[in-house]
Design brief:
Layout (H helix, E strand, L loop, with lengths): L9 H6 L2 H14 L5 H4 L6 H35 L1 E6 L2 E2 L3 E18 L5 E6 L6 E2 L4 E6 L1 H36 L5 H33 L2 E3 L4 E6 L6 E2 L17 E16 H4 L8 E5 L2 E18 L4 E9 L10 E9 L5 E4 L4 E3 L2 E7 L5 E5 L1 E5 L3 E6 L7 E3 L11 E3 L8
Parallel strand pairs: 1-22
Antiparallel strand pairs: 1-21, 2-15, 3-10, 3-14, 4-6, 4-9, 5-8, 6-7, 8-10, 10-13, 11-12, 11-14, 12-13, 15-20, 16-17, 17-18, 19-20
Amino acid sequence: MNTPNDCQTDRDIVSAPPTARAADATQCDDLGPARPASARVRRHPMLPIALGCLAAALLTAGAVPRLRASTELTRQVQAQSALTVSLVEPKPAPASQELLLPGAVTPYIDASIYARTSGYIAHWYTDIGTKVKAGQTLAVIETPELDAQLSQARADEATALANYNYAKSTADRWQQMLQTQSVSQQDADTKTADMQAKKAMLEAARANVARLAELVSYERVGAPFDGTITARNIDIGSLVTAGGTPGVNAPANGTALFQMAQTATLRVFVDVPQDDAARVDARTPVYLTSPQYPGRRFPATVARTTNAIDPSSRTLRVEVDVDNADGALLPGAYAQAHLGLVEPHPALELPVSALLFRPKGVTVAVVGRDGKAHLKTVTIGRDFGTYVEVATGLAPTDRVIDNPGDAIGEGEAVRVAATPAAHA
């Protein structure tokens, strides 16, 4: 007969086959009172905690990656929704600017030489391209009619002189007789008046002789200044008239005998736009370039300006004088004038790619401290080509967006692109 100690433990009963467990249970029930069912199976006290920790670990292992993926997705969506922009830093504009303008090269003096007397060309001494000095004879005109008129005028002068001498001697005698009361006062005054009339006629005759002699002196056509003959419109035997000539191939009056130009110094006229006119004066540095001489600079000076804006072109006419002693530049040629304009108070400059043209005016987009785009209306000053001067509306500390795009708006979220290391 089994004692209580001989009874199988609950673990043995649980691990035994079902038929054995039933027999053993009957035996134990017969030997003593039965124990509660909860006492039959013992549970480890840390088992629930371990199971909870295991469940929490499994939950954490599955939730954390999902949470990280969700956070990364949210960040990517936000990054893609913000406009990526690059910045450009406003820099001080240069104080000086070179203004390039086309210019027309003209002689310092350009004169048309006309005949001052009528006649035929007896001889000409200079042709085109000839360098002449002031007073040098260019041509000789034959004036037979004028010579005859001068001879007649001189004869008239001699007659007037003889009449005057006779009238003077008569008047002198009558004044002597008047002192002895041999003649009346009236007769003496008459002789004196006749002498004065004869004197006036003599002066008129002399003036006529001088006039004709001056015209005869114009038979020799002389150069009025040092220069170059640029045109010859006459030939031997050509009929010329005072104030003009038909010329070789020009039958109408009014054609000049010669055309002369002074080329030792040249005038170059340029038209400066109204925006730059206030910065051009006699102190403005300038030089010329010509396509004929690549790389060569011709020193020049600003001689004068019109001090008035042309209302049709809104430009200021400026005369630039250049020394041309070597004759390199030719009158009528095309040249480029390089004017050095100086700005006493330069502002900031930006690339033209940073500008927006809106109905309210020229605008730039800047990135604020809130990471959003803000639009500023600015005023444009000087134009440097790819850069422009911003006269007003921009601060040196503004972070200006380059190539902002026409669709950018006020308060739009933006993301500044990383600056490449080479430009850091």
